[in-house]
Every structure is written in C-alpha cells, then in structure tokens.
Amino acid sequence: MVEAKKETLEVLPGFSQGVRTGAALRDIAVGQPICPKSQIRGKMVAGNYEPPEIGPGDENCQLAGGEWWVECEKKGHDPYFRSVRMYSTIDIEEEDEDGNIFVTGTRKKVRKARVVNATQVSPDIAHNSGKGLYRKLKYFGYKRLKDLGFAEVCQYRGCQKPPMYKAEGYGDYCSLEHLNLIAARQEGEYLTKTDTQGLNAGLEKMSDKKRQNQLRNVMPRNVEKIG
Ligand SMILES: [Zn+2]
Ligand SMILES: [Zn+2]
User: Fold this and answer.
1) What is the pLDDT of residue 1?
2) For residue 122, how far is its CA from the centre of ligand 2 (angstroms)?
3) Ligand 1 center to residue 72 CA distance, Å?
4) At what angle do helices 204-218 and 176-186 cross, to 10 degrees?
C-alpha cells in the first residue's frame, strides 16, 4: 500500500441519508451550482399569493442558460453555497444558597453557517453508462468538493466518513468493508446474505463466514491507504 499525502480541507457538514449495507451503490458527493436569486419566493398574504419583489441585481442567473454559473460566480452570488441557520437550546440555570442548581428557562441560540449545496452523483456503470458524473462536471457546472475547499467523503452511498482507502477504478472509501462491497457489486459477485430472520437457525455463522470470504476475494489489488 502506498501512503498518500494529506491535505487539510474543511469537513462537510451533515447531508447524510443513512448507510444501507444491503444496497452497495457508489456515489460521489459534489457541489451543485444554484443561483441564490432562483430561491427568492413570493408569499401568501391573506390567502393570496404575492409575487416577490425582484430588484435590480436580483436577476436569477439560471434563466440565462448556457454556462450561467460562470456569470453567477462573477456577480458574487456564491452559487455553490447557501447560508443556513442552526439552532441550539441553552438552559438558563440558577443556584440556590444550598448549592442546588435549577433550570429556570431556556434560550435559543442561532448560529449562521455557510454550507455547500452538496448532492450525490452516481458514477455507477448502471446509470447513464457511467457518464453521469462527467456530464455534471463538464456541462452542468458541478464541482468536486475538494475544488470548493472541502474534504471529499467516502463514496459508498450515504456514507460521509473521511476516505481512508483508494482503489483506481473503484473509488475512495472510509473502510475496506465499503470498498469491497462496491467491488463485489462492480465485479458481479453475488454476496451470500447473512441470515437475520432466523430461518436458517445455526447457519448464520457459516453464511457470515462465506460472505466475509467473498468480500476478501473481490478486494482490488491496487488498494492504497490514503487516510
Ligand atoms: Zn446568480
Ligand atoms: Zn464509508
């Protein structure tokens, strides 16, 4: 295994949809350009829709078509990011003369954060003949996270852990387990299911061992340790 050098990049705040071990799909998290001016909405006033006031400089760049994201960035619209408010609740405490502490109320704290418009694109051969990611980057203005100053994440669908292993042709993963699950799918290796229903009581250990062996067998030869 080859050691790769580490870069220090910001860590992507949560967008995880949850990891499922039964569905081994490869996804690459990327930044999607969205002109913030496309998000200006009208509001309902007394049951009637009032369109938003579109002032000068509020034009939605996306309506221009073409490579609109280039102009959008030039205007300083920051299309790969959006600002969000994060709330946390803080207890207000009071201590009496005996040293007992009581919570007498709460305060809501607001923190503003700038987050990436992150989305996941499948480079999987089953989707658009494997051209999905390439097309998004080349024709739709999407950017890789590292090009936006953020650390890349594991390419197992829904997993957001930092990548530790890399194999050319397979991708970057947090663990050999995630790498091998994707390799198994890519190589068409049908994995033995581990019995969780108790239908084959007593055989769980055997099927689990078989599955572990299958996973080891599909492990690509060109694995590099990158984390
Ligand atoms: Zn814009
Ligand atoms: Zn992972």
Assistant:
1) 45
2) 15
3) 4
4) 80
